[in-house]
Structure formats: structure tokens, C-alpha cells
Records
---
Amino acid sequence: MNVSDNYRDNWESYWRGTSDATGEAIWDCDPALSAEPHSKLFLPHADTTRTIVDLGCGNGTQTRYLATRFARAVGVDLSHAAIEHARRAADGAPVEFQQLDLTDTGAVKALHDRLGDSNVYMRAVIHQSEPAARAAVAAAVAEIIGSEGRAFVVELTSGSRDVLKRATDDPEGPPAKLRRVFDHGLKPADADDQEILRLLAEAGLQVLADGETTLPQTEYLADGTRIDLPARWFVLAGK
């Protein structure tokens, strides 16, 4: 199935209302806190001569870092507005961006046909996808890596809900960047931990390595503590 019009519109409105300022999106952390440490975990398993595809790239901050570690980097996102942000921010960097609905199996296959078996970087996409679309997102990872590519996937765990509840329970309400996420109808940490494992397995993805981590955000709790969301990472291969 393709994503619903409401879901697509929510992301378009979110990114249209987001400036090009670094870190305005709550998940737009410095690559030193995300793609860089993730690459250290991923590179022992990945062929860096292959393209890496950043699924759900947003404004492309992590994609631009990945372009320094792999022969070619392509960022894709459901939102046209996000891709416009990414292209502006690229400013001549050797990276490519395109709009792509990961639930559009024909478009995903066309991307694989164009790039060949590629590596995938996907950070916190399944957990906030619509329930009926999550299997297709996992299947897109499998399609793009084929038999020779590898994937690095990070998804929020149920522990993230406790952190988000702490942020939203503040007497003054959630901090501004988190409030914008809720105001646009986006639902972080919406998938259960076992659902993520099931979806990856059903897509034919084999776990080569995994571990616990956090996804640092660009927003802070009322006491000044940075919001770091508990997560789990996976290095995946096709079967």
C-alpha cells in the first residue's frame, strides 16, 4: 500500500514550516552524534565502493556526512519539501537527493535498478510510519540492498516513550521543537520493539549485528537535559 494522503500532507506541512536553520528539526543533530558513530559500527560490514542510500533523509544532514565515507550517496524522502531543503543545504556537495515513497514498490524497484545493490542507512523511519505501511518500508530496505548490499537501521525502542512522556508532562508543555512534531500529526515511537524485529525478519533481512544506542535530539527538557531517545541499531543483510 502507498502512504495515506494525510500522512504525506503531515510531512509536507512539517517541512514547509521548517526553516533551513541547522537543528530546527528536532532530529537534525550533528552527524558527529549520529551518522559518524553509526558509520563506525557499519563500515566493517559494508562495501564502501557501493552507493549508500539514506532512507528518510529529511534535510540531508546525515546524507552529506555519508557521502564522505561511501563512493556515492543518495538521499530519499517522502516529502518534496524535505528534498528541497536537502538540495539547498548540499551547496555543491557530491550527493544526490530525490523524492521517494518507500511504500511505492515500483518506484523502489526502479531506484534499485538504477543504482544496483546498494547500502542503506535508515534512521528512525519504521517507528513513525503508519502501521499498515511499516511492512512495505522494511521490504524497501531489502529491495535496495539486494544480495550484496548491507543496511544500517536504527529504530526507537519503547523506552523512548518514557522520555517523550517526561518532556510532554512538563507544566509548561512540551518544548517547542517537540510540540511542532505533535502539531503536525507525527507520532514518534509508535511501533513496538517486537514489531520492528518481526517486520525485519518478514522482509527477509538477516541481522548481522545489533546493539543499544540513543538518538540525540536538538531539543532539551526543562532541566536542560538533552532529549536522547533510546534506540536499537541493526546491521542487516538480505537472505
---
Amino acid sequence: MDSWEAKELDNPLGVFLRARRQQVRPEQQCIVPGGARQVAGLRRDEVAMLAGISTDYYARMEQGRERHPSRKVVDALSAALLLDRASSRFLRELAAGDDDAAVGDPLAAGRLDAVRPLLGSLTVPAILVDRWLNIVAANALGEVLHEGLEHRENYARMVFLSPGAQEFFADWSELARCMVAALRAGAGSAAGSARLERLVGELAVASEVFSTAWAQHDVYEKAVDRKRFRHPLVGALVFNQHVLELPDSDGHQIWAYHPTDDATEEALVRLGSLATLSASTFTTREVRTS
């Protein structure tokens, strides 16, 4: 395990704070940079001053000696580090992290049974993912939409490990960046978990793009995204990807892909004719937990 992975596993709050302060230029907070600086971005004492706390207290957070600052301190740090809404919420989850909480549990069988008919009734591609981006379920169009790609049990693995991914996803570089940030956002209070470590370790070893982006500690929460595919069977596809949160489900989301133009709608009809139709209009996957 690399040293940065070990540190993040042991001290996710401190690693996040350090990474994000290094991204804020002094002039962004109306601070005169002065002479040569030993660190990129803000110094610890500058963050402390902006947040209205002592430098010693801030240092203890970065060092992992203070893991649960108050909501008032967290909000002040968010302002000092110029965090957006998604990153601020992520910081709050890190600060409140419950070590005894069960995070990343599978969707209860009854809840999954209730979601299956919904997926099957949708006339657009749709998949159900958990906080680790495991693809728990998909309707027939959701399955055939990703036809030809490998590692289809997990969306991050599919993007970074599939041999044809960079050709299939027309905006692969942007998608890769968002995928890393979405995985971090989904991890939430489990950012230091061994389960996340295994997934991140696998992807970091296989992809320098992933390891570089993960070290940036960006956080991204999907709402509506434009997605462009180069499908091997029907050609170019352009969708608005809508993200629907499942309340009280430990981070599960439905990703629904709505066509943006007539050409995509026509291609989707052709794609639907290629889907294997059976008595079931959805697929449920075994979610890898190890």
C-alpha cells in the first residue's frame, strides 16, 4: 500500500484538509503571498486565521489528533478552503464519521424488489448503483447500453479498466475525473474504510489517471450530466443522465439516460431491438463486497 493510501485510511479528515488547502491560492482569500512559500496553497496558520481557530487546533485536525470538530468549525473551514456544496457536505460527513456505523450495506431485499418494477417500466436505459459504484441492477436497455465493455459489475472499474472504454465514452477524460470525484463523494463517512481502500488500490495501480485524480480530493455529486457514447452497435448516442437518490438506502442511486435528440431516440429504438427480452425486464447483480 502506498504511503498516501495508508495515511488516508488512518486519517481521512486530515488528508482531505491538507489536500484542499494546497489547492487554494493565498490571493483567492485576499492574502498577500509574500516571498517564497514552502508549501503550495495556504499555510496552516492562514487556514486557522480564516476559520477563526487556533493554529494548534487546526494542526491537530490535519495530524489526526482531532477527528470530530464541531459543525461551526467545519462550516468555517469550508469557507476558508472555498469548498463547494458537495465538498462541504463531504467534510461534514468526515468530521461526524461514526466508526460503528454500517456503511455500504446492500439494499434490503424488499427494497430491491420494489425498485425492480420501476427499472423495468422505464423506456430509457437505467441502472441502479450503490455508493461504491457497484451496478446492483439494470433494465434491459441499461444492460445493452454498455454492451461490449468489461468489468460491468462496477462503473468505476468499467471506466478505468475496460480496454475499449476510452473509445466507447466520447468524453472519457472528463468522465474519468467526475467518476473519481463521485466515488469519493459516495464514500462519505466511509472514506477511510478498508473496503474503499481495496477498490481505490486496484484502480490506482491500473490507472495513473485515477491515482492522480484521487490525490486531488475533489468531490462531485451528480444531478444531471450530458453523456456521449460511441456504441459499437448503433453509433453515436447523446443522453442527459438524471440521478435519482433512493432515500434511506445508504447511498443507492438510479441513473436514467434520456435521449437528447432525434438521432439518439432512433438509435435507442434500434438498441432496444437488440436487447435480450425475457420474462424479466431487469438484471440484478451480485455486488462484490471483498
---
Amino acid sequence: MDIRQLRYFLVIAEEGQISRAAGKLHMSQPPLSQQLRLMEEELGATLLERKRNGKSMELTETGKVLYEKAQGVLSLFEESMLEVKEVTEGIRGSLSFGVVPSCVSYLPKKIQEFNEKYPNVSFRIWGGDPYEIRKHLENRDIELAIIRLPLEGKDLTIVHIGKEPFVLVIPKEWESFHSKDSITLKEIGNIPLLLMHRTKGGGIYEIIIEEFNRINMKPNILCECPDVNILLSLIASNIGAGILPKTSIPPSVNKDIKVLDIKDTPLQSETALVWLKERYLSKAANRFIELFK
């Protein structure tokens, strides 16, 4: 069994059909089917079997074990090839990293600064909440990520970028707030709130709820959503107000919203650059990390 066969097997497993896998691999179906049979003969086990509908295939228990191992083998192989190539080619290629939408404001200046130093490196950016970004790191889709803490995991290296206060974001149409520059948490208590809520795990939502519990108040939560851009659109449309990290608000929405400081709470959000401890990082990734130190 070789690397090429492992690649074939992974694509078949992910596509669930020989025909779709062959199309993705730009090859005809019979040779691909033959490679799968050769792998099964070598291992003495069936790796994929047809579902009851007869149209698609699923992994057997043996296939599931090989699929997990093959992902690790191919990731290690690709990282090794990258390391070897970089010895002779220098800093070039593509840098893949993830970012939580509310942290995007940290990127423009860093990308511009990096591009001026290393013009032969392009970027591939993945978005998502911290849980989704962590999965991309584990799957080796990305090398680095910019997220908001907390993010669980002893397998991660964390570089703290900075802390910032939470602010109240309200529709500009709310005339009763026009004379205000700040507000207390108690005054926010009865306002319909649109809060950021992760897919899984703790985060901004839990921090805000804990702060309301501290002052013995139950917030009026109208909506929960993991995407800051959706929340800002709803706020601008006069649906409610949001408690968000200050840098998560892009200048493009300022004409439709008003931002108030929250003056009686220590609420803060912390942003960090993270990556997996055990994986090889490209030269481009290491140079990008240096921009944040």
C-alpha cells in the first residue's frame, strides 16, 4: 500500500461513491475500483460497503480505523514535503489560517505588513466560531487561527494578542439614547438583547450571563447567534441591542448603529493567535506569528 492508494481511499470515503470520487480525482471509475480492491486484498478486510439504498458506500469498522490513520499519515507526509521544499525555495506558497468573524479587525494591517515582506505568499482564510476553527486546526485545514478566548485544549500554543472592553451596540434610531455616551449594566437589563453564542463550548455568551448574575439580574435575551455580522445587521435594522467586543464592530456599519461604553462592569474580551503544538509550521506561518510578538 502506498501514499497514492491512501489518497484514493480517503476521497472514496469522503465522497461515498466510486463515481463521484473518480470525478474528483480526474480519473475513470474502473482503475479506482481496482485500487480499492487491491487495498482490501492486501489487508484481508472490506473497507467500504454499500448502504441499503445501493447508491452510496460507507466505511466498515476496519475502514474507519484506516481512514483515521490515513489522515494522520498524509498530513505528516505533506508537512514533511513542505519542510523539504522550503529548505530550497524559501518563503513562498500559501498560508492557511482561520479567524473568528469578530476578530477580523486584527487582520488587515498584519496581512498588508506580511505581504510587503513576503510577496510570494498568498493567503487562504477560513471563517467560523472557535469550535469550528479548532476542528479546522485538528484536520490540518489551517496552520494558525485568530480566536477569542477561552478555547480549551492543552495541545494548543497560545499567543495573547490583546484585551478589549465590551460595549453596547444599539440602533441609531433609538432617540432616547442620543445624548448618552455610556450606560450601566443595570440600565441594559430590560433592553432586548442579541448575543453572540458559540456552537459549542463557553465564550462571550457565558461571560455576559455571569456578569448579569453578579448583579442579580436576568437579561432580556431576544436572539442568540454565533455570527457577529448577522447580529450587527439585526441591530442596524432596529431589532434590538448587542453586547459585543469593541473591535468586532466594522466602520462600515457605524452609520446605522451607536456604540455606548458600559461603565460599571469589568467585562473584557481577549483575543489570541493559536496553533497545534505538535505540527510542523511552514516558514510563512512562523513569520506571520512573529508579527504578533
